[in-house]
Amino acid sequence: MKKEQPKKELLLISTSTTHGTGYLEHCEDEIKALLQDRKSVLFIPYARPGGISHTDYTAKAKEAFERMGITLTGIHEADNPVEAVEQAEAVFTGGGNTFLLLRQLYAKKLLEPLQKKVEKGMPYIGTSAGTNIAGKTIGTTNDMPIVFPKSFDALQLVPFNLNPHYLDPDPNSTHMGETRETRIQEFHVHNSQPVVGLREGSMLRVKGEKMTLLGHLSARVFLQGQKPMEFKPGDDINFLMEAY
């Protein structure tokens, strides 16, 4: 019997806003290409710890998607969040604090429904924290652990970890602390999965078993026990989709 091919449709974006652009403007074309003829998106605003309510955060996302001709609703408006996921045409998870986001997903029993829908082909879009949770664990997030989730295990939509907002060392800085690269190497002392550092404006497009780096910048890939590698848009990075 022929093995059924994966149906995953993912867009994992480093950041929602780049310098000089509005919310989701820099990735609008990629979002529209992912969603194709779908006209509605379910928004998960759980990552924001304060400063903006779920309602206001959803309104901000709604404005951006309306610009694309797509209706957006917040999952917090649903009487039954699990049913909302099961009925969704597509899901967008916004940025904020990754620890808070994952704790909320566990508390509302949403990880398994999200995994099942994505496996069946429902498009998933993430920015920042929403991208972090697509990986194996959230162990490479830049966020402070302001709350403690049930587990660091994430959605595992891809078999590696992500580090959105990846920053290269500033050669002119007098900062003597750890660099982002150092912290990821520390992660690899205790964890074996690859880590993809996504610079601002970069994103990963996953279609089934194939993955493409989008944007204008290279991505920095870390493998346990090896020197970091740079991959440009157009390079073959599909080895990262293999199981580790």
- H-E order: EHEHEHEHHEHEHEEEEE
Query: What best-fitting shape do the alpha-carbon axes yield?
Result: globular
Low-confidence stretches: none
Structural class: alpha/beta
Calculate Rg over CA atoms: 17 Å
How much of the sequence is in beta strands?
Answer: 15-25%
Which fold name is given in CATH as the topology?
A: Rossmann fold
* CATH-assigned homologous superfamily: Class I glutamine amidotransferase (GATase) domain
Helix content: 25-40%
**Tally of DSSP β-strands:** 11
- Name the quaternary structure: single chain
Specify the number of helices. 7
**For the largest beta sheet, what order do the strands appear in spatially?**
3-2-4-5-1-8-9
Average pLDDT confidence is 94
Enzyme class: hydrolase
Family: Belongs to the peptidase S51 family.
GO molecular function, one term: dipeptidase activity
InterPro entries: Class_I_gatase-like, Peptidase_S51
